[in-house]
Specification:
Layout lengths: L1 H41 L23 H34 L3 H7 L1 E4 L8 E6 L2 E7 L2 H9 L20 E5 L10 E2 L7 E3 L4 E3 L5 E3 L11 E5 L2 E4 L1
Antiparallel strand pairs: 1-10, 2-3, 3-4, 5-6, 6-7, 7-8, 9-10
Length: about 230
């Protein structure tokens, strides 16, 4: 019985000690929570004040007169506008220069021919921009024949003087206006040019007279710098 009593006493003593410890821990926790609640209650939000108040920028403002500030602003705006315009002009100019024809292309744009080497009554064929060009040194009889035709009755009405700058020299592209073939000179029913592909006949002025071609042979841009020189292009 003494052993059982001693054990019971020990258990009760331990229980009392644990209860005391638990009560102390609970009191400490409640005290800490109270301190936290108190700190929360004393916290003030920075946004609780009036946020619509405009800051004072007086110390950053210019000490000069408003007119002086306007002049400076206008000067800066004008300078920036001028610089932008100059830059845009340079950009566009560089772009156009890069897009322009190269030197070799410009060299092919014009062809110079010496007329002294072409005898009267003969044809010469040259190449210009990848196309054949017929140059005919016409005789006086050929000129008269071309002018005697009533051009108003032709398929593509065009007088001879409209197709030549100098009656002695006939300059035309050697490309048939039907399908782009190259006609044969001094051939056909009218003594001019004949396209054997589909039978188009052109007279001594290069005008279509017979066959499927709808238009006269095209006359390119050309000029005579002097009596012995022809420049095409």
């Amino acid at each position: 019985m003494s052993l059982a009593s001693a054990s019971g006493s020990l258990l009760r003593s331990c229980a009392r000690q644990q209860l005391t410890t638990s009560r102390a821990a609970l009191a400490s926790c409640q005290q800490s929570r109270g301190v936290a609640d108190a700190s929360k209650a004393s916290f003030e939000s920075p946004f609780s004040s009036n946020t619509t108040k405009i800051p004072d920028f007086t110390k950053y403002s210019s000490k000069k007169s408003p007119r002086s500030n306007q002049v400076f602003s206008y000067f800066m705006a004008g300078s920036l506008g001028l610089a932008s315009a100059v830059g845009a002009k340079a950009t566009v100019q560089d772009f156009l220069v890069n897009m322009s024809a190269s030197a070799d292309v410009l060299a092919q744009a014009k062809v110079e021919i010496g007329l002294g080497a072409i005898p009267e009554g003969k044809n010469v064929i040259i190449k210009w921009r990848g196309k054949p060009v017929f140059i005919r040194h016409r005789t006086q009889g050929e000129i008269d024949e071309a002018n005697q035709i009533d051009h108003t009755s032709l398929r593509d009405p065009q007088a001879d003087e409209e197709r030549v700058q100098d009656p002695k020299w006939l300059v035309m592209l050697g490309v048939c206006t039907h399908l782009g073939c190259v006609p044969i000179g001094e051939a056909g029913d009218y003594g001019g040019w004949f396209c054997p592909c589909h039978g188009s006949h052109y007279d001594i002025s290069g005008r279509i007279r017979k066959g499927p071609a709808p238009l006269n042979l095209e006359v390119p841009a050309y000029n005579f710098p002097d009596d012995e020189t022809l420049v095409i292009g």
